[in-house]
Design a protein that fits this description.
Length: 188
Amino acid sequence: MRYCHRPFASVDEMDATLIQNINARVGRGDLLYHLGDWSFRDAEKFRKRINCPNIHFIMGNHDKDRNVYERIFTTVRDLNKITIRRSDRKYELVLCHYAMRVWNKSHHGVWHLYGHSHNTLPDDPNSLSFDVGVDAVAQRAIGMSREDHLADWTDQLSPDDYRPISLDEVEALMETKAYKPVDHHGNR
């Protein structure tokens, strides 16, 4: 809360709001991918409060007991490459707690989503990658840029904006980007 200027009066209020925001947007039949740093406190307690039974978890730097996570989540990985098929489109994504400059098949249009950085890394308009952590989602909702991160924007941030991001929202953000290679692979 303190480092990211989250607009909550207490940790308990923040936790309750984050769980409420997940449950309001993620249905029982949905898949939820969580990109790490689940909880500093009782991971199982928080998991029980989320209605979605299908949570795929990526380990973060603050997630200490992998055995607990393997018991409470559908899958637990350090990095996950997923394919999502919709009637009109196939999406391929690499999910990791950490940001990467290149990833498997990045030069073929595979997207990369990450957390960890709390919207403090500059967005690269030439990379099919961005931060999907709750701080980044909330800050994007008010047009806050990375450069604004250290200022106190608490009075403009809404607790309702600290929420998961949908695949449709990811797609819309990716459509604003133009891939340009940064390594030896060249153009797609």
